[in-house]
Structure formats: C-alpha cells, structure tokens
Design brief:
Largest sheet of chain A: 5 strands, antiparallel
Strand order of the largest sheet of chain A: 1-2-3-4-5
Shape of chain B: globular
Helix content of chain B: under 10%
CATH class of the largest domain in chain B: Mainly Beta
Distance between the termini of chain A: 75 Å
Strand content of chain A: 5-15%
Strand order of the largest sheet of chain B: 12-16-13-15-14-17
Number of domains of chain A: 2
Radius of gyration of chain A: 30 Å
Structural class of chain B: mainly beta
Distance between the termini of chain B: 26 Å
Structural class of chain A: alpha+beta
Number of strands of chain B: 17
Radius of gyration of chain B: 19 Å
Number of strands of chain A: 5
Oligomer: heterodimer
Number of domains of chain B: 3
CATH superfamily of the largest domain in chain B: RlpA-like domain
CATH topology of the largest domain in chain B: Barwin-like endoglucanases
Shape of chain A: elongated
Number of helices of chain A: 9
Helix content of chain A: 40-55%
Strand content of chain B: 35-45%
C-alpha cells in the first residue's frame, strides 16, 4: 500500500510541474510575448521578478522531465543518483515555494502566486500554501523509491488509480485555479462585449422580415451610418416614404444566432420625427438618433 | 475656456471663441498655475479654464491656467528629466520635461521613467512641451503593452458601472467641448481601425497601440462615437449626460484607483474633456474622480 502511494507521486508531480510550465508558456503564446508571460507576479522585487519567473519556469520543466526520465532508476548510487538528485530537487523546490508563498501572502496580500500563469491571479490563501506543502511531502516520499514498474495485477492497478484519484481530488480542492478553469470552460461572453463583424450584422439584417418589409423604401445599397450600443448595432439607410426623404434605422441584436431580433424605426430625414414603428424607443438606449 | 486679456482681483476678462467675456470673480475664487495662487497673479495670454461658483451663474470660483496633462507610454528618455511620450495612434507624441522641484515627487510615484512604461502627469503647458509638476496616478508595475486581464463577466455587464474618470487635453477637439473619450468603442466601426492603420506608421519599439492590448481593467460595453452616457462625480455629487466624442483606448492601460474621496473601483471608465471634467466638479490638479456611469442616461 505504502509503496503504491509512493509510486503514484512521480507521475503526478511530473504532470503538475509540466502543467505549470506549460500554462506559463501558453500565456506567452497567447500574448505573443514571453515578457508578458513572465511578468512579475508579486513574489519578487520588480527588478528580479522577470528573471526569477523565467528561472522558475525552466526549473519546473527540468524537474518535470527529470522525474519522468529517472522514474525507472533506483534511488541508490550510480545511475540512480540522478533520480535521487531530481527528487530531492523537487522536494526542495516545493519547500521553497511554501516559504515564498507564505512570505508573499503576508507582504502582498493582493498578489496571486502565478503558479499556473494567468489562472493563478487569485490572492494567495492557505489553500495555495497547503498545496505546495502537500507537493513537498509527495516529492519527499519519492526519495530512494525503487524503480517504477507497471502494476503486476488488476487489483494493484485499481489501487494505484484510486490513490491517484484521491490525490488529484485533494490537489484540486487546494487549487484556487480550478474555479477559474471551470468558469473559462463554461464562459460565454456577454453580448455587450462580443466582437461581431459588421458584415455578419448586415447579413442577419438582410435576411430578416423587417428588412423585407422596408427594402422597397431604401434608396441606397450601402448603409449611411452604422454604430453600436451594447448589445445592439444600429444601421441607417436613407430612403423615401410617401415622397419625403426618410432615414430607416434598423437595430440588430448582436448574438451568434442566425435570426437575431431586429427592430426598425422610420424617421423624417430633416426633422428626425419618428414616422413609423417607433420600436427603437423601447430599447432604452441613447438619444443619438 | 479662453485666453486672459486682463485680470484683476474682481474681474477676469477672457478672449474666447465667442469673443471677449468679462467674468466676475467670487470672493473665494482661487487660481491654479502649477500651484495655487490668487487670481490676480495670473498672466495675460494664459490659456485658462474656469469653473462657475454655481452652475449657470455668472461668478467664477476656480481658474486653471496653462493646465496640461500627458498620459501615455514613454518611448524615449533624454537626460534625467526629458521624456518623449506616445499618447496612442490618435493623439501622437508629446514632450514632457519634469520640473526640477517636482522630480522627487514624480519619481516616487513613477519609479521607472524608462521606455516601455506608462506615465501620467499634470503640469503647465509650454510651447511644444509639458512641464510636469504633479503625478496624476501611480505608475503601473507592468509594461504598457501588458495590462492585467480583467475578470470574466457572467450574465450582463453591470449598469451602472463604477470606476475612475480622468481628463485629457482638447487636442483637435473644440476647447469647450463637453464630452468624453470612451475606452471601449466598437472595434468594428470606430477608432480601433484608425489605430490599426496608424500602427505601421509609428514603427517604434516602445510605442504601444492600446487597441491591441485587450479590454483593459474594466469590462465596458461596446459603444460608438455619439452614444450618450450619464456620468456622476461621486465626490462632488454632480452628474451630467455626456456624448462619447472620441476614442479613449489609452485609459484601458491604467488599472488605477482614485483615493481622494473614498477608494474607487479599479480602472478608468471615462476620459473626459477638460470642460466636462470641470463641469462635473472635478479638480484638474487631482487628475481624476470617482465616477458612476450609466449607459444611455
């Protein structure tokens, strides 16, 4: 049982270390700047922040790969010495993390740890520190561990998986990043913040029943003005109704659905008097019209 | 707003766009020209902006002379006190010279006067440069191109939204324009396109196009030039309906708070014209006020 617990730690630690490094790398790819990904997170003085973050990322990568590469070696002398060095290094890394996180929590209570890039912007709490402690203990129990082997029986494999699942659940409980990940997975940008091309709005408008109703009064193919207010994009076409020049104002709701709601108002081009279907007034938007 | 033709302890004579204006000064009237001073100490030819003692009334109780502000990214440093600042694709570049008496004060709030970092200073306008006297905020610790990502919004963006309102110099706008530069104009139809077009022309290592740095610290709904907003100064309890008159993308780069009358929420929600800022009861030398903004009024 104890040997199985010790066996589980190496792949878990390696996955976490590589995941932490990858999340920082992903941010660098997203922002197209390694500087952004490695910006100070509040753990270190400003001038040391970036080099320390780069060093941390490289250390995580080295330890993660090292744990995997040396997993099959004995923790004694010779070739196994390297495995011991890597595992002791991992334990020291997490022990140092406990100290630094605790210090940062006291000196900069608003700072996130940056452990998993921009997922770790939540201020450091006891969970973050406890997680580093658990990982330190996990790394410590791997020192002098015999080489890893595949489970010898189905029951051993089941035990192995159960321990891994329990430990993952514990780490998830101690990880404030989990909430952020779940929010991002299920996140849908509110319509006020959604970037939608004007072309998509015009396509939706031209396929609407409101457009078909007023298309005969529109005198130009291109809109005279297009603007946006939150969830609505307004499109103005010059036209004529009963012999007088008018502005036909369409309001198209900005959503990804194929048939968004469309409202329309017809205004006298000279006086801005609403001539027909004053639906836009009910939207409670600005007085730009 | 106008230029001083004459000033006495009781009357201020201005040359404005509407012609000559004679403005009575309230007994408590104060002036600012780099520091507080009596109105009679102002100089002829100074460009001033005035605040009426009571809205719509004749008497003036506050005068700011030669007030200027530069907000942007440091792109070049010449010696210990001269800086070239990029204010974004729409506003171009300005020279800032830090006044000797203000060096310590500014360096405390802006420890990194280096290319690539942000600066926001208030001072006296001179021919071709701004003499910086007051730090308008504290320097963000990040480089200009990397503001923090705002938290995700679930549901709809809150309305009204709270934050900080700042002011900017008129530039090509009319001096007396009452309006605001909005940080989140519709990228499909507004200044973001102009910004992208100007990007190639700038070609500077440290210049930052604020349109390319993400939404900034506050999630604001997209609007357009001409949209109207009701802005309330929470410090002076004055509010007014204002149109969006220009692009305020530079405000996205700052995640600061105003702390003079309580602590505001983080981030700049409006960059007002000088006239609008003063009209809402703001003090130009403070640089900002706590504001609440309601879309559409």
């Amino acid at each position: 049982m104890l040997t199985t617990v010790r066996d589980v730690q190496i792949p878990l630690l390696a996955a976490l270390l590589l995941g932490a490094c990858a999340s920082k790398g992903w941010r660098a790819v997203q922002t197209r700047s390694i500087v952004a990904a490695m910006d100070a997170t509040g753990l270190f003085p400003l001038r040391l922040g970036r080099p320390m973050m780069v060093a941390m990322c490289v250390t995580e990568l080295g330890l993660g790969l090292g744990l995997i590469a040396t997993a099959g070696r004995a923790g004694a002398g010779g070739a196994g010495l390297l495995a011991t060095v890597v595992r002791v290094g991992a334990a020291l890394f997490f022990l140092l993390a406990v100290a630094v996180l605790n210090e940062t929590r006291q000196r900069r209570p608003q700072a996130g740890c940056g452990c998993f890039g921009d997922l770790s912007e939540t201020p450091i709490g006891w969970r973050t520190i406890a997680r580093a402690g658990v990982l330190c203990a996990a790394a410590a129990v791997t020192i002098r561990l015999p080489p890893l082997r595949m489970p010898s029986s189905a029951s051993t494999a089941a035990l192995w998986l159960a321990i891994a699942a329990f430990e993952l659940a514990l780490i998830a409980f101690l990880s404030p990043e989990l909430g952020e990940v779940l929010v991002r997975l299920g996140y849908s940008e509110p319509c006020e913040l959604r970037r939608l091309p004007v072309g998509q709005t015009l396509t939706a408008l031209h396929s609407s029943s409101q457009w078909r109703r007023y298309a005969g009064q529109v005198s130009t193919s291109a809109p005279a003005d297009v603007w946006r207010e939150g969830c609505w994009r307004f499109v103005v076409y010059p036209g004529s109704a009963r012999g007088r020049p008018v502005d036909i104002v369409f309001a198209v709701y900005l959503q990804a659905r194929r048939r968004p709601p469309v409202r329309v108002a017809v205004l006298d081009a000279d006086t801005d008097e609403v001539l027909g279907r004053a639906e836009l007034a009910r939207l409670g938007l600005s007085t730009r019209l | 707003m106008g230029w001083i033709l004459d000033v006495s302890p009781h009357i201020l004579v201005l040359h404005t766009r509407q012609g000559e204006q004679r403005l009575p000064l309230a007994a408590c009237a104060q002036a600012w020209r780099g520091s507080k001073l009596p109105p009679a100490a102002l100089r002829r030819g100074d460009h001033v902006i005035v605040r009426r003692q009571f809205p719509g009334g004749p008497a003036v109780d506050r005068i700011w002379a030669q007030a200027g502000r530069v907000t942007g990214t440091i792109v070049e440093r010449e010696g210990p006190t001269a800086l070239l600042i990029d204010e974004g694709p729409a506003k171009g570049r300005k020279i800032v010279v830090i006044a000797a008496e203000a060096t310590g004060r500014i360096q405390v709030r802006f420890p990194r006067l280096e290319p690539g970092y942000l600066i926001d200073v208030i001072g006296l306008k001179h021919d071709g440069f701004l003499q910086a006297l007051i730090p308008a905020t504290s320097q963000p610790p990040y480089r200009a191109g990397h503001p923090p990502t705002p938290p995700l919004v679930s549901g709809h963006v809150p309305d009204p939204v709270s934050g900080t309102a700042v002011w900017h110099e008129p530039g090509e706008e009319p001096d007396d324009l009452l309006g605001l530069a909005y940080p989140a104009l519709d990228p499909e139809t507004s200044c973001e396109r102009a910004g992208a077009a100007a990007k190639g022309a700038a070609g500077d290592l440290h210049a930052v196009d604020p349109h390319a740095t993400g939404p900034g610290c506050v999630r604001l709904p997209y609007l357009s030039v001409g949209s109207t907003l009701r802005l309330q100064n929470e410090c002076a309890k004055r509010s007014r309906l204002l149109p969006v008159t220009s692009c305020g993308a530079m405000a996205r780069l700052f995640c600061d708070r105003f702390v003079t009358c309580g602590t505001s929420r983080k981030g700049r929600i409006a960059d007002l014209t000088m006239a609008a800022f003063v009209e809402l009861g703001g003090m130009l030398e403070d640089g900002c006020f706590n504001a609440t903004m309601t879309i559409g009024g």
